[in-house]
Design a protein that fits this description.
Blueprint: H1 12-20, H2 24-37, E1 42-48, E2 51-56, H3 63-69, E3 99-105, E4 112-116, H4 118-133, H5 145-152, E5 153-155, E6 170-176, H6 180-187, H7 189-199, H8 213-226, E7 235-240, E8 243-247, E9 265-271, E10 274-283, E11 297-302, E12 305-306, E13 327-333, H9 351-398, H10 406-422, H11 430-480, H12 495-501, H13 511-525, H14 529-548
Parallel strand pairs: 1-7, 11-13
Antiparallel strand pairs: 1-2, 2-6, 3-4, 3-6, 4-5, 7-8, 9-10, 10-13, 11-12
Helix pairs in contact: 9-10, 9-11, 10-11
């Protein structure tokens, strides 16, 4: 079957670009990517009024290269060496602006200019669409893609422009007449800078802002050099109206608990002799998720450009994402055989993607999960150690060598036993084990001191009981020698006589006192003389019984 240009309708350009670049910031990414593919080391993005400019210091394009750039779905770029190889990216701003102008110049050559009139293209397609809806034209009368592009794309010849019109080596792209609805995505400095920091292969910030940034970058470069693979980075400056900044990868110390990211851990993505790339990850310094949701986990990148979203790789780390969310990291692919799909939200299906999935599931995720689990155990053990130190300090403050209460000493010893159980030596990190041993030694010493004091008090109590028992035994023996029934105490006629009969000596000065007691109490209670004697006998009996008790 033979096809001709009329078999490809012009509407295909709208369908492709809208589907592949739904976010207006994607267009900016595409033109940055083209600059990097051209070897640019420095790129500037300027957003002002209703225009966007992307300028790079790459090698620029000659007439033949620029002419081929307008082809749709065809590219001379080697997919093994370049991220942009679909031949569509140059049209990524189709829905974003009314006109795109490209100025470019190679070294020792005249500049060239390419103009794409997107506004006229879209108006042409809209008119056709209305005519079709009203059935005023048939499908055979629709404009084909070739005719549309030829009509609204203009490319200068080699000698049309002078160096004065564009003296810079490299490429300058300007998008004008931005769609007001989409313009808001670009005029927000924080929004576009955050996007570009995620998706563009930028350098890492310095140690002051991200402690491990320079080290991670140098280590990735070293690993890639070991496997003869390239790792691209670019200097990017963003200016939105009057606000400008040099952009870096988005990672900062403040993303981590206490501004303290743990040292990065690297993992090769390798199966036998096939090297795909390298992963790096910094774990949070507490058993918590990274506070900023957009930075949690690992971002997949090919040659520094993001593929998909961070949470796309969470599937390799288990259902809960518990450990995944505690990391900030990247999975950087540099193998030329592994390619992103057209939408750059996943990898193209291939044997290399199969290897990638296997390595992620069985090597990368397992390593990072294991490290996070180990840190969690060590962190929990360290928290318990710190609590044990506080408890031991409190017990030491509460204890006094002069404590007289054995119950208090018993409670202190129990508290020491409890705090020692909190110290899990085997779970602690190596640098904490010596501290834990010292705490245990101090706890043992304090326990011994308290136990000695306890033993002293117990021995005192035992000796006191022994002394009391001996005294009681002696009294019992002495009393047992007295036979109350054989005392033969005579009957008394008065209280004074009773006291004399039971051998209680009364000082002469107290005789009046006991006489008054006898008269006012004992005799007063007596009903008659016989009752009086009975009361005296009862006093005698009570006294003798009390003496022998």
């Amino acid at each position: 079957m033979k096809l001709n240009k009329f078999d490809i309708g012009a509407e295909i350009i709208s369908i492709l670009t809208r589907g592949m670049y739904p976010d207006p910031r994607d267009a900016v990414r595409e033109y940055i990517q083209n600059g990097i593919d051209a070897g640019a080391e420095n790129i500037q993005v300027k957003v002002r009024l209703d225009s966007v400019v992307v300028q790079d210091d790459g090698v620029g394009m000659d007439y033949a290269t620029l002419r081929k750039a307008v082809r749709l779905g065809i590219s001379d770029k080697n997919p093994k060496n370049n991220v942009g190889f679909m031949g569509i990216g140059i049209y990524s701003a189709f829905h974003l602006c009314e006109k795109m102008t490209i100025h470019t110049r190679k070294k020792d050559a005249n500049p060239l200019r390419l103009i794409m009139d997107f506004k006229s293209m879209k108006e042409h397609l809209d008119i056709q669409k209305e005519l079709r809806f009203s059935e005023k034209i048939t499908s055979e009368q629709l404009t084909d893609l070739q005719t549309l592009l030829e009509q609204y794309i203009n490319l200068t010849n080699d000698d049309e422009l002078s160096l004065e019109e564009f003296p810079h080596e490299g490429t300058w792209i300007e998008l004008v007449g931005l769609d007001p609805i989409l313009y808001d995505y670009l005029i927000d400095f924080d929004s576009i800078s955050s996007y570009l920091q995620e998706v563009v292969p930028l350098h890492f910030e310095n140690e002051e802002n991200f402690k491990w940034g320079p080290y991670i970058e140098s280590e990735i470069n070293r690993i890639c050099e070991d496997y003869n693979a390239g790792f691209q980075t670019v200097n990017l400056k963003l200016r939105v109206n009057n606000k400008s900044a040099d952009l870096y990868r988005p990672y900062k110390n403040s993303d981590f608990h206490n501004n303290e990211p743990q040292a990065p851990v690297f993992q090769l993505l390798k199966r036998n002799r096939i090297f795909l790339g390298v992963a790096w990850g910094c774990l949070n310094s507490a058993r918590k998720r990274i506070s900023e949701k957009e930075k949690r986990g690992f971002l997949l990148k090919k040659q520094g450009f993001a593929i998909g979203r961070r949470d796309d790789l969470a599937r390799f780390f288990g259902r809960s994402n518990t450990y995944f969310d505690r990391y900030i990291g990247e999975v950087v692919l540099v193998n030329p055989e592994i390619l992103p799909n057209g939408a750059r939200n996943d990898l193209e299906v291939s044997i290399y993607k199969t290897i990638f999935d296997d390595v992620m599931a069985n090597n990368v995720s397992k390593k990072y999960n294991k490290l996070a689990s180990k840190f969690q155990e060590e962190n929990m053990a360290e928290e318990k150690l710190n609590q044990a130190i506080k408890d031991l300090t409190k017990i030491n403050e509460d204890y006094t060598p002069f404590e007289e209460n054995t119950d208090t000493l018993t409670e202190l010893i129990k508290s020491i036993d409890v705090l020692e159980k909190k110290i899990r030596l085997s779970k602690l990190a190596e640098n904490k084990k010596q501290e834990a041993r010292m705490v245990k030694e101090q706890a043992d010493e304090l326990r011994k001191a308290i136990k000695e004091r306890f033993d002293i008090l117990i021995n005192k109590q035992k000796q006191k009981k022994i002394n009391q028992q001996e005294t009681q035994n002696n009294v019992t023996v002495n009393l047992n020698q007295i036979n109350v029934n054989n005392l033969n105490i005579p009957e008394s006629e008065s209280l004074l006589e009773l006291l004399e009969n039971i051998d209680i000596e009364i000082d002469e000065g107290l005789i009046p006192f006991f006489t008054i007691i006898d008269e006012k109490f004992i005799q007063a209670l007596s009903e008659n003389a016989a009752h009086y004697k009975q009361l005296l006998e009862e006093l005698k009996t009570d006294f003798l019984n009390q003496r022998t008790a």
